[in-house]
Structures are given as C-alpha cells and as structure tokens.
Amino acid sequence: MSNDMSDAPITDGKKRYASGVLKYKQMGYWQPDYVPKETDLIALFRITPQEGVPADECAAAVAGESSTATWTVVWTDRLTACELYRAKAYRVDPVPNTGHGTKTEQQYFAYIAYDLDLFEPGSIANMTASIIGNVFGFKAVKALRLEDMRIPVAYLKTFQGPATGVVVERERLDKFGRPLLGATTKPKLGLSGRNYGRVVYEGLKGGLDFMKDDENINSQPFMHWRDRFLYCMEAVNRASAATGEVKGHYLNVTAGTMEEMYARAEFAKSLGSVIIMIDLVIGYTAIQSMAIWARKNDMILHLHRAGNSTYSRQKNHGMNFRVICKWMRMAGVDHIHAGTVVGKLEGDPLMIRGFYDTLLDTHTPQQLEKGLFFEQNWASLNKVMPVASGGIHAGQMHQLLTYLGDDVVLQFGGGTIGHPQGIQAGATANRVALEAMVMARNEGRDIWNEGPQILRDAGKWCTPLKQALDIWGDVTFNYESTDTADYAPTPTASV
Amino acid sequence: MMTNSNQRLTQGQFSFLPDLTDTQITAQLEYALKKGWAIGVEYTDDPHPRNTYWEMFGNPMFDLKDAAGALMEINSCRKTFPSHYIRVTAFDATRGVESPTMSYLVNRPAKEPGFGLVRQEVDNRAIRYTIHSYATDKPEGERY
C-alpha cells in the first residue's frame, strides 16, 4: 500500500497537537515497523473499509478508537505517556477470496497491539470495553469482526480461570477415558417440577452422566426454581444409588440479579449438587463472579452460550466464537457449548476443532487452517470442557469421537428422550454406542470407516441401540457452514 | 440386585459392554502403554461412588512396557480377590493432565447388592441424601 507522505505520522509536537482533525495514521496509530512485545495484547480484526478509506488508515482508526483516540486532536495527550497507551496497528493483509472478482467486497485482516497497562487486571469487562467497546459502530469501517486475540501470559495470570477444570472435574466425577454423556430435559418449557425430575431420573439411571436445564429454564410460572432444584436432586441421588456412579444435573441459576443467582447457587450447594449452570447473557462480570463462587464452593460451572450467535455467526461483523472461548476460559467457566460439527447448529469441522483446542490446550500453536492466528500459552489456566449439543444421535458416535475426542460432553437431548422405548432406553443406547466406539478406537480400529458396523454389531446385543439406529441412523444436517477459515497456505505480504 | 438396565455397577469406561475378555483387556493395556501411561490395578469391597481410594494391588507399573506383564498382575489380583471389584487405571504424567486417563472394571462379585438411599428430611422440604453401600453392612473382608 502506498504510504504517501501526507499520511505519515507527524512527529513534530507542535504540528501533531495543533487543534483540528488528523488522519489516524498521522496520529501514530499505524506503525508497520512495530514489533509486538511479549506483554502486549494482540487483536486481529477483519475490516471491511468504507468506500475510499485505505486499509491501513482503517486499521489505524480501529486502533485509535479502541485505545486512546477521539475524533479530534486533544492537547491533553501531551500530559501522558501517550505513545505507550496508543494501540498500534502494525500489519494489514487482504483476506483471501475477497475483493475484486469474488462475491465478497474486499476485506482485510488488521493486527493491532495493545500495551498491557491499557487493561485492568482480572477484568474481562474492562478488556472488552476497549477492544469491542465503541469501535464496532465506527463509521470509518463498513463492518468489523474480531477474529482472534493473543492474550499475554502476564495478563492471563491476573485471572482465576476455570473454577474446576477438566482434570479435577473428571476426578470428582470418577469418569476417565471417554467423553461424558448428557441430555437436556425436554420439553424445555412447561414441565412441572415433579414431571421434570422424572426425565432427569430416567436419563441418569439409563446411563447418562449429566442431565441439564436449558438456557431459558429459570423460574417461570409453570415451575419455580426451588421446586426444580428439589425434584432434580431427588432424581440425581436416586440414579446415583441405582448405578453406583456420580451423577449430576446442571441446575441453571441464571436470574435477574446477582443476589438471586447467589441464593440459587447456595441452595444447589446445600442439596449436594456437583454442578450449576449459567447463561452467557448474564454478562462477563456476572460470569466472573459466579466462577469465583464456584471455586470457593467446589462447584462445576456450566455455561450455556445463549445469545452468542447474534454476534458470532456473520462473517463480516461481530466476533468469532473462538474469542468468546478465550474470554470464557479467562472468566472461569468449566463447561461451554462449543459446537458438534455434525449436529443441527452451525460449525465447520476445523473451526470447531480450533474452539476445542482453545479451551483444552495448555499451549496452542498458530494454526491458520483452524482459524487460530496466534500462538497462545495458557499459563496453566485450567482447561474448559467443551459441550457438544444440538441434533446429535448415537448413529454419529464414530464421527463425534473422531472430530471431538475424549474431552467433551456429548449431549443427546432428543436423541435420548425421543427413544421409542423410553428415556432410560435412549440413555442406554447412547452409553453403549459410546463405550463400544471408545473400545474399538483404543483397539486400533478405523472407526471413521468401520463405525456404522461397530454400532450395528453392538445393536445385536443391545436392543435400545438397535432401535435408536433404526430411527435416527440416517439423520444428518448437511448445510454449508457460514464460518470457515480464510487463509492462504503461505502468509500474504503486508500491503 | 441392582435395578439399572445392566443390573450391575456401571462405574468405569466399559461397564455397559459385555465383560472384557483377556484379549480385549490386552488391547486396552496396549493402548495405554503406547501413550506412555502407567497402569495400576486396584481392588475394593466398597464400591461407593465416592470411595476414591481402592486398595492398590502394588504401585502403578511405571516402567512396564509389555501388556502381558500387566495382564499377569490383573490375573494375580483376580486370583487373590475373586469376589472383589477390580479396576485398571491408567495414569498420565503429562503436564496439564497428571491424572488418571483410563479406568475400567475387570472383575466384579457374582452378586452386586448395590446401594440404598438414606434421606434425612430437613427444613423447607430439603433432603440430605446419603448413598449407602449395602455391602458395607458386613464387616471388612466378609462382604462378597
């Protein structure tokens, strides 16, 4: 990109701080020679510039508006170490397969570095108020999407991280070497507490590890929260006694105020629940508070990502879900819904693997094909258990295990409760399918190709599995994904 | 007798499948050894879901490379404790895990009495639950 002299940073103090309006590049927010420090936060934005705005000016504008700049020059900058506080856009790459000759207008990946001192320690709210605070409504960009972030170890160390983490969750539950199994109670609205607990009991006794409230089950006229908690815990304990296994039900404590959420969480604890649940819509600060409560009270904290698709699904604007994964690992949840690949909800296999890696790795290398733009050291923050939920069934077990691995909760709601022989049979079908597939994989069999046969063989001695395969075996959700990686195998030059 | 669909304790990775043959156990042992995990054999006569510490039939076999050796330990444990629950646990020492990565039963008593639920009714309809292992009604060593 031509760096014409009129746009170059103005270094003469008198000219730089004369009243009036300057381009963001002139103000110093575009620094192509800048080498990010190990302690910098780095954000990668996908920018669609307004007509006539050069990409680097656009990147500089985003850097400016997400850090120190306002629309006009202010002399009060000179009272501060403003060069440190200024975010620096240092690299702009055209996004492959956009622009002239494609269906999509030209987009750019802009790399912006932020000094650590711009952010309050241990506050997702503060970090996001800068990074996604004002800038998404900014007129210089037509659309803007936060694709990825590199969080420095120094900043990660100011966060508690997951209250329990995958390792301790497995130790508490005494469940190793296989994905966990769950199901969401259905219908999600309308059941009385007594009827609701029945579904929980049947699912758990049949072989699931967890049952779950749905995101919008809180305390409605048909079932108030105390009733739900009491009946669900009766179900959990009965199922535990019937099987000799630790069982759980995610009691959703989401409510209108923190005070109410704490009260519900305390009640769940007093009843002996191993796990509670919150929704993403309660907000970052509330999530962090509940994570601290959960750590203090030996509680696993499940997060439902309710609302995320309002800003994560469209490719040109909003933010990628992998960024939410990073923030939620920092905020301290133990479970997060992160996609199924094969189910009814959005998800490209490699993109989903990128989310899972973000939640589970101790150290994530840069992997552009998975949408992971940065190497990320997780600084010993606990791992978050990804949850795969939505339109999955026993007949896909080989695909689920191949795509998602062992550290995941597979949630078969309809695929458990909709079984013709009842909920226990549905749960048993899923558990048998899972155990048969894990065993076959460990034996070195090619489950990707032999999977359907492995399931049919298990169905010969497990009638509930046979029935599940007969009904759902052929159900697939093949839609083109909206969220795919845009990368070229070799890095493109800065323009 | 337990009333779940398997009519037995369902702890471990493979309790919903038919009992593992020695060949199947060997394949699982080989999987663990290939990953560099240490294999431990543990037994108990109290399978309460929160009874974490089953007795170790020797330390985990850190330096063992051969599945046949581990199977010998399993069989020796079965011979010594034919009516106990016996489980195989694999331990992964990798940073970020440092915890069991496999756990499956390889022996169980002929009769599994299961568990009762003791309810203590407290205030506001709440209940304190205790899961009680029927086997532990008898003294240690006389349970199965």
Protein traits:
heterodimer; A: 495 residues; alpha/beta; eight-stranded parallel barrel; five-stranded mixed beta sheet; 15% strand; elongated; disordered C terminus; B: 144 residues; alpha+beta; 2 helices; 6 strands; 28% strand; globular
Low-confidence stretches of chain A: 490-495
Mean pLDDT over the residues of chain B: 95
Largest sheet of chain B: 4 strands, antiparallel
Task: Tell me the fraction of residues in β-strands of chain A, as a range.
Answer: 5-15%
Strand order of the largest sheet of chain B: 2-1-3-4
Distance between the termini of chain A: 5 Å
Q: DSSP strand (E) fraction of chain B?
A: 25-35%
The class by helix and strand makeup of chain B works out as alpha+beta
Q: In angstroms, what is the radius of gyration of chain A?
A: 25 Å
Question: Strand order, biggest sheet of chain A?
Answer: 5-6-7-8-9-11-14-15
- Number of helical regions of chain B: 2
Instruction: Estimate percent helicity of chain A.
Output: 25-40%
Topology of chain B as a string of helices (H) and strands (E): HEEHEEEE
Structural class determined from secondary elements of chain A? alpha/beta
